[in-house]
Write a structure and sequence with these properties.
The chain is an alpha/beta fold and 659 residues long. The chain has 23 helices and 19 strands. The strands form four sheets. Strands 1, 2, 3, 4, 5, 6, 8, 10 and 11 form a nine-stranded mixed sheet that branches. Helix 14 packs antiparallel against helix 15.
Length: 659
Amino acid sequence: MADGQTSSLGVIDLSVIIVNYNVKDYLLQCLRSLDEACKPLSAEIIVVDNHSADGSVEDLCGEFPHVQWHALPENIGFGRANNIGLDVARGRHVLFLNPDTIVGPDTLALMVRYLDEHPNVGMAGCKVLNPDGSFQVACRRGLPTPWASFCKLFGLQALLPSVKLFSGYNLMYRSIDETYPVDALIGAFMMGRADLIRSLGGFDPEFFMYGEDIDLCYRVKQAGFQVHYVHETSIIHYKGESTKRSSLNEVRVFYEAMEIFARKHFGGSWMFLAFLRLGIILRSLVARLARRRVELATWIVDMLCVNGALLVATTVRFERPLGFPDYAYPIVPIMITLISTLSLVAVGEYVEYRPTIRRSAVGLLMTFFVLSSLTYFFKDFGFSRGVLLMTMGLSGALFAITRAMTSWLDAKGRSRTRRIILVGLNEHSARLADALSSAERRHAEVVGVVATETFSDRIYAGMTVLGDTSYLGRILDATGAHEVILSDRTIPRDRVMQLMMASSSYRARFHIAQDYDDVVTARIINDVAGLEPTVTVAPLLRFRNRMVKRLVDFSVALVVLTLSAVALILPRVRQALQPWWEVLAGRMSIVGLWSDGKQRTSGKAGLTGLVHVSRPQVLSASAIEQLNDYYVDAYTLALDVEIILKHFFRRHRANDNRS
C-alpha cells in the first residue's frame, strides 16, 4: 500500500519510527523518500518530535497528513522518544530511522523480505552512505569490548584499518559488499521484529544519545537472535545533523554512552573502565589541541625562535652554540622556554588575543626582567646578561617576522570569500546583509541568519534561518563561517560572552554592529590591535586572571588544610573546613560571589566577597546582584586583596564589640 496506508486487518508490514529534532528540512526530504519506498508495503510512519524549535511539526503535518505526529514538550533523548513510537506502532516489523536520511525506493521492501526469509535474524541494517557516496563505517560494528574500545580510542584502528586485530569495532577489515552477521548497527537505520524489541523493553532510557543502538543490538543477540548487515540496498545519511543543531557536546555524550554500556555489560572489568576513561581524557585533549592548532603552532614557532636566538647569541659571545658550562644544560633552555611562555601568556598571547608584535615585545621584555632577576638568586647561572639581552632582541626580531607573515597569510586567506553569519531576526540584519552583498559582493557571503529565540520561519529577508543561538557552535562548525555579527543589541552581555566562549574554538570573529560602518571599524581595529572593540570581555573571563585566581585559591586552600590536618579529627573542625575543600577542588573561590540565582559566564561562590563584607542580610536582592556584577566587571587581584583585608577588619571589629 502506498504513502503509509495500512491494511484493513490492523496488522501491517512495517512501522517506520522517526525521532526529529530541529531538522525540518532534512525531515521533509526523508518523508518524501518514504512515501515512495512504502508503496509496495502496508506501512505507517510515526514521527516523534523532541521539542524542536524550527516549527517541524507545524510546518510539515499539513503536507503529510497520513503521518502520525507526536510532539513532545521537551527533548527526552533518542531512545526514550523511539520507545514512545514503539508503544503505538502496529507493524510486524519496526524501522528506527533518522530524519536526516534518504531511503531508496526498494530499501524497505527488500529489508522486510530479508527479515521474513531469515527467521533467525532479529534485527538488520542496510548499507549507509554519505551524501558524496562514500561508505559510513559505523553502519556495521563489533561490540565495544575492552580491546576494541582501546584500539578505537587510542587510534590503532585508524592506523591499521585492514588488520582484524585492531579494527574490530568498525569491522573495517571486512568487505562492504557482502551480507553477514555483525554485533551492532547504526541507529540511523535499524529494522527489527516488533514483538522481539517490545519483549526486550525497547531502547534503554539510561542512554540519552549514542550507545543505545549498540545496547539494543547486544540484547537482541543475548535473546538468541542474530543481527545482520545487508549490503544489497542502501540509504543516504547526512550524518549528525541533529547534533549539529543542538547545544550538546556530542563527543562528551558519545563517550559517556560508551561508559554506560561498559558499566552495564562489562561491569566487573575495572581495568576496562580505567582504560576507557583514560582514552576519553586523551581524545578530549587531542580534540582541544586540534581546535587550538593555530595558537599551538604559534607557540611552537615562538619557542623555536627563542631557543634559536639563544644558540646564536651564545655563539656570538662564546664562539660556540653550547657555550655555557655543562651543568647549565638542559636547565637554561627549559627555564627560558618556561619563563617566555608564562610572560607571553601574561600579556594575552596565545590564549586571549590574536598574536601581535606589540604584545609579544612586552612579553619578551617581561621575560628579560624575570630572568635577569633570577640570576641574582642563582649566581651560578649568571653567565652573561649580554647573551640574555641579545637573545631577547633576536627573538623580538624573529617574532616580528613570523607575526608579519601570519598577518599576510591571514589577509591572503581573507581575500577569498569571507563567510558571515548574522545573529538576530530584525531589520538591522536585513540592512547589514544588503550592505555586505553590495559593498563586498566578490569577497563576502552571508551564509544565513541565526535567531535569538524560538523561530518558525526558515527564510528571513531572503536569508536562510540556520537555527537559534543555543547551538551556534554547531552552526559555525557546519558552515565554516569566519565572522559572526550580532545585530540584536538586546542580547545581554553575559549571553554574548557565553556565545563567544562556546564558539571560541571555531576561530570566528565576533562583532556587535547594526550598521556596515560599525563592521568596517571593528575589522580595522581587530587587524591592527588584535582586539574586538565592540565586545567587552569581563576581566574574570580572561585566561591569565582565571589562572592567577585559581593558583592563589589552590595554594592558600592547600596551606590552610595542611596546617589544620591534625585538628581534622574533630567534627566541628571538619565541618568548618568543608568550604576550604570546595576551594581546593575549584568549586568555590576564596573571594567570589554571593548566591543570587543569576547565571553568569564567570565567577564562583566565595568564602568572602563584596556582598559578604557589606552586611548581606540587610541588602535587597537587586543590590546583591549589582555588587556581584560589579565584582565580575571590575575584578583585579588588588580588589581581592582589599576585600580580604576588609573581611578581617570587620571580623576583628566584631570580636572587639563582643568583648
